[in-house]
Amino acid sequence: MGNDGGSIPTRRELVREAAKDKTSTQVKEVQTEKLEHYWSHCALSQKRLSPPIVSDSTGNLYNKDAVLEHLLGAGKQGQDENVAGNDATAGAIKSLRDVVEVNFGVEEEEEAGDSEASPTRLVCPVSGKRLGPGVKAVYLVPCGHAFAESAVREMPGEQCLQCNETYTADNVIPILPASTTEKDRLRDRLSRLQSIGLTHSLKKAPGTGKKRKKEKSTKEEDSTDAADVAAGPAMPQPPPTTKEATPPPSKAIRNEDTASLTAKVLAEQEDRNKRRKIAQNENLKTLFSSGSGMAGKQKDFMTRGFTIPADAKR
Questions:
Q1: 199-227: per-residue pLDDT in tens?
Q2: Residue 179 class from Cβ within 10 Å (0-12 exposed, 13-18 middle, 19+ buried)?
Q3: How far is CA 169 from CA 140, 146, 166, 182, 189, in A?
């Protein structure tokens, strides 16, 4: 500060000036630099984009192998990439159903005086424009073909010009959207798809079938419980009585000789019981007569089987 042969600084040199706000030109330059980076590098692994290229519901671009490593967590390097990539995905990629493979028109060129090939050039297959920060690009779900937005806007119908697959205006996904309006639209689209059990690729979300079956079973149980409550307490019913068939004594005896003897005795006893019942039946006694039966034959058919009482008047 002094007595060392140096200069003494003034207050103007010591006090820092307040940071000035960036101009619109500077803001656009920063945004362009970011878009150029994300158009040429994977948002998850920060490596150069190379086919196959996939995109999530927010329009970000990824290398498919980086997404697989992110999902599988293969090795320490993959885990480190996942730690850095969680901010990039923001939980938007939980399975391969949450991404769509984007089919770009690719044109590779070699720059003059450069021995190595230049980065992959992504072009629109309809207009031939180079897709990047200077051209607004979109892709269609579920086919994944990418076009310039102006080409999609001029399409006569809602059919892909590459594969003739139908699509809706809601499934036209902007690539790397910059405006908040487009980001809000993509967020609302994803919430609507999740409410009906679909993912970004319009495929069924894993586990939705089981949840629906579980909800259906719970609803049926609730309806039956409500019906039981409305009907009132049920009367207790006696348990059903089942007559167990008792095996005959002969089958219960293990000795063969004793069992055969017992069976004979039981058969004779049953025969005697039948005869006793027949003898005691009065209706069957009238069929048998002790006499010769000639008296009945002397009568005619009008008086046979009928006797006239003695005191009857003639």
A1: 999 999 887 665 556 666 666 666 655 55
A2: exposed
A3: 9, 14, 10, 13, 11
